[in-house]
Structures are given as C-alpha cells and as structure tokens.
Write a structure and sequence with these properties.
- The protein has two domains: 11-105, Fumarate Reductase Iron-sulfur Protein, Chain B, domain 2, CATH 1.10.1060; 108-151.
- The radius of gyration is 19 Å and the shape is elongated.
- By secondary structure, it is mainly α.
- It has nine helices and no strands.
- The structure holds iron/sulfur cluster (SF4) (2 copies).
- One iron/sulfur cluster is lined by residues 27-33, 48-49, 52, 82-84, 86, 88.
- Residues 24-86 form the 4Fe-4S ferredoxin-type domain.
C-alpha cells in the first residue's frame, strides 16, 4: 500500500517569502518553462510546471526529498521565457536551500552538485577537443563513438547506455 502524501498548505508562502521565490504565486501554469528546458528534454519526469504545481499544492516533503530539484543546470532559459516573471531557476534554488536547512540532504551534497556542474564543463571541453583531434565530425561517427564509450559506464542511464 502506498503512503499517503503529506500536504503543507503554508509551504507556498514560505517559498514565496524567500529571495528568488517572490514570483511563485504569479504562475498561471502555461508550461513555457517546461517546453524550453534542456533537462526536461533528456529527463521526461523533470517538469518545471509540475514542480510549481507541487509547491502550490503543498507537497513539501515529496519535493524536498526528490532528486529532481537537483537536476536543473541553471541555464535560466525558463526564467527568460516566462510570461509571468516567475524565475523558476531561482525557485529551485529556494527548494535546494530548504532541503539543506531541513536536513533532507547534507550541506556537503550541494557542494557535490556544484562540483558536478563544474566537471561537466571540463568533460565537455575534453570531449570536443578529442573529437576535433580524432576527426570525428559526422553525426554517424559521433553516435558510434558515443554509444561505445557510454556502454563502458554501467551507471549511465538513457539512450546509448547499457544500463537498461
Ligand atoms: S512559464 Fe512561467 S507562468 Fe508558465 S508555467 Fe512556467 S513558471 Fe508558470
Ligand atoms: S534553468 Fe533549469 S529548469 Fe530552467 S530551463 Fe534551465 S535547466 Fe530547465
């Protein structure tokens, strides 16, 4: 039997009262943020509009315990395109702060995520240089190379991995 969800109807006011959360209550659920999000493209369950809906419903516990609030890469595309100036990128930062404050994750976890972001850029730089130097310059060659490399990483889920 699944556990009943816990709702905190004051949660939205706590989020909206924090720097970065001020625009929350202006959201009219148009979905523009989700449509342009690069993380939503690769992770269908990451849905900014749904996260806002969950905040408004008061699903505090579920949200603060979710890995999804850590997936955003901070590109600010959602914020730039939002017709209501909601600033979803900053809303997620508020959720992350609350997760740390409420002990859902350790303060060290936030540093780990920051380091993942930094290393991802390093990885991208190394990959581009490698492809350039090896002359891998067609999509077909790249797909083959990518699938071979990803297959070596057992923990990577998704297209091209061997984890499914
Ligand atoms: S784009 Fe803005 S108004 Fe539309 S759902 Fe996203 S946050 Fe809400
Ligand atoms: S800032 Fe985060 S949520 Fe917004 S579009 Fe970029 S990755 Fe998606």
């Amino acid at each position: 039997m699944s556990e009943a969800k816990v709702f905190d109807y004051q949660f939205k006011y706590r989020v909206a009262s924090r720097p970065g959360g001020e625009g929350l209550l202006s959201c009219f659920a148009c979905g523009v943020c989700t449509a342009g999000c690069p993380v939503s493209e690769v992770e269908g369950d990451f849905n900014p509009r749904r996260i806002i809906h969950q905040i408004l419903l008061g699903e505090q516990e579920e949200l603060l315990q979710s890995e999804y609030i850590w997936l955003c890469v901070g590109c600010y595309r959602c914020t730039a395109h939002c017709p209501q100036d909601v600033e979803f990128t900053n809303l997620l930062k508020v959720l992350r702060e609350l997760a740390v404050e409420e002990g859902t994750v350790s303060a060290e976890w936030k540093k780990v995520v920051d380091e993942v972001d930094r290393r991802t850029q390093e990885l991208r730089r190394a990959l581009i240089k490698y492809l350039w130097n090896k002359g891998i310059n067609s999509l077909e060659e790249f797909e083959r190379f990518y699938r071979e490399e990803i297959a070596k990483l057992g923990w990577v889920e998704g297209e091209g991995s061997n984890a499914r």
